[in-house]
UniProtKB/TrEMBL annotation:
Family the UniProt entry places it in: Belongs to the sulfatase family.
Span of domain Sulfatase N-terminal: 38-408
Lineage: Bacteria, Pseudomonadati, Pseudomonadota, Gammaproteobacteria, Alteromonadales
Protein's name in the database: Arylsulfatase
One Pfam family this sequence matches: Sulfatase
Entry keyword set: Hydrolase, Signal
Span of the signal peptide: 1-20
Lineage top rank: taxon: Bacteria
Length: 517
């Protein structure tokens, strides 16, 4: 080969490499790096307790990806979900309203959508600022208009797209309820017209075996509530006929939802986006992929925590890969406190060891005590948030108004009426949190600074203790605790402080009766 040809080839190669380099640089700089419009990712874990994460004191399980977010971000020690159960917490987070205003409770799998079409949500809020929004994972906020039974073989709506989301990929309810299928936007994924899907929560339908009749077919024994149609060796709540072509496999959740989330990030890296990643883990039934089985010292519940941590790391890695991690506001938190036994026998109690899912707090999921709503909460936003620990009293219900403030989006007077602007505290620029905070369970509790008041209620204690192995904290008389001296809520001061009891109850009444901002 002569010198001129060699030189021409060298120049051509150099030009090609330079072009590739410029293309890469252009791609990086066109990713959403607008500091005024950071991407927003909310990791919403299910049933994760205050003590279930490494940086919050977990034992017998490691969570390196979540710990990395905390070590490079802001870890809150007194942050709360709005309620001690999943549907109410999700409602409050997305709408900025207490769920008791809609009389919200844990929904069946065929329930009417709880958030009315057109009702403001975080998704519709950020849409005003040009954001693209997606919800991936557990929904459990109902679907359809409630005027007729949901036909799963047709478009299922209204749904997330009617309240501001541009894309949704869902478990229609949650893992222990039928239908056990994926819903992408309006359509049940993979459903064959020759295998129509029907669901009933009142009457047995179809010829699928049910758990209470065929316990020998079960991989995990279940209580009577969870003993209906068997899918993937697990009996669920409710009856399901047909739909075998669309059935999920629980062990696949970790890749299915991660892939959908990461695809959304890749598609929208050049625009501001909001991703609500709503985990099924570590909710029952706990069926982590074999890749994670045996990776903790606590059996399936611990292994599900490992799986959840892995998923978190995969999504964070995608943000990094797409060049948007530094300009992404990540909020990692849980929908309520922990529960060990919740319908299925997966040996979570027997294999607990020295681990304390609720940390130093009393109670858990369903409970009026602190562990019902005090949950791990981490904010990671490298462009703005400095690493540290924040002890302010915080609530997920304030994410709505704080995002509106951060993005300079005006809110209507009747929008998110319970949400307070605490942007500077979420971002670690202030220690000023809430002065008062409602904790919703089967009663209403009030945090007023260092004081905790639990309003009187009729008893569900026996049911929670016997079925969930959790202290409910529900009594016919008031309870009042001074948390600095009594973090575990053991010393009821109500009889000694009648004026404080009256003060707290009046505040609860005023919040319940509030209608306008």
């Amino acid at each position: 080969m002569n010198f001129k040809i060699k030189t021409s080839i060298s120049l051509l190669l150099a030009a090609t490499l330079l072009s590739a380099c410029n293309s890469t640089n252009t791609e990086s700089t066109t990713s959403n790096l607008n500091p005024d419009k950071p991407n927003i990712v909310i990791f919403y874990v299910d049933d994760l307790g205050y003590g279930d994460v490494g940086v919050y004191g977990a034992k017998g399980v490691e969570t390196p990806n979540i710990d990395a977010l905390a070590n490079n971000g802001l870890r809150f020690t007194d942050a709360h979900s709005s309620a001690a159960t999943c549907t109410p917490s999700r409602y409050s987070l997305l709408t900025g309203e207490h769920a008791f205003r809609k009389k919200a409770k844990v929904l069946q799998g065929d329930a009417k959508m709880l958030i009315d079409p057109g009702q403001p949500t975080i998704a519709s809020l950020v849409k005003k600022a040009g954001y693209k929004s997606a919800v991936v994972g557990k929904w459990h906020l109902g679907l359809g208009d409630g005027k007729s039974t949901i036909d799963w073989n047709q478009d299922v709506k209204p749904g997330p797209l009617e309240i501001g989301f541009d894309y949704s990929y869902l478990l229609p309810a949650t893992g222990d309820r039928v239908p056990t299928v994926y819903l992408e936007n309006y359509t049940v994924e993979g459903l064959s017209a020759n295998d129509p899907l029907k669901v009933s929560y009142t009457t047995k339908i179809g010829d699928r075996p049910v758990g209470r009749e065929h316990p020998e077919l079960l991989r995990q024994q279940a209580d009577n509530q969870h003993a209906d149609t068997i899918v993937n060796g697990i009996s669920r709540i409710g009856y399901m006929q047909g739909g075998k072509s669309a059935e999920w496999k629980d062990e696949d959740f970790y890749t299915v939802f991660t892939d959908k989330a990461n695809h959304f990030i890749a598609e929208n890296k050049n625009n501001p986006f909001f991703l609500f990643f709503s985990f099924h883990d570590i909710h029952v039934p706990r069926l982590p992929h074999k890749k994670f089985q045996g990776k903790s010292e606590m059996g399936l519940r611990g292994d599900a925590i490992v799986q959840m941590d892995y998923i978190t790391g995969q999504v964070v890695d995608q943000l990094k890969k797409q060049g948007v991690l530094d300009n992404t506001l990540i909020i990692f938190t849980s929908d309520n406190g922990p529960v060990l036994t919740d319908g299925y026998d997966d040996e979570a109690i027997q294999k607990l060891g020295d681990h304390k899912p609720a940390g130093p707090f009393r109670g858990g999921k369903y409970s009026a005590y602190e562990a019902g709503t005090r949950v791990p909460t981490i904010v990671h936003y490298p462009n703005r948030v400095k690493p540290g620990v924040n002890n302010s009293l915080m609530s997920q219900i304030d994410v709505y108004a704080s995002i509106a403030n951060m993005l300079n989006i005006p809110m209507d007077e009747d929008e998110a009426i319970d949400s307070e602007v605490l942007t500077s505290t979420w971002l670690g620029e202030s220690e000023q949190g809430r002065t008062q905070l409602i904790e919703e369970s089967y009663t209403l509790s009030l945090r007023l600074g260092d004081w905790k008041y639990i309003a009187p209620s009729k008893g569900t204690n026996d049911w929670i203790r016997d079925n969930k192995n959790i202290e409910g904290g529900f009594q016919a008389t008031p309870q009042l605790f001074y948390l600095p001296n009594d973090l575990a809520e053991q010393n009821n001061l109500a009889s000694q402080e009648p004026s404080m009891v009256e003060k707290h109850q009046k505040i609860i009444d005023s919040i319940v009766n509030k209608t306008k901002r």
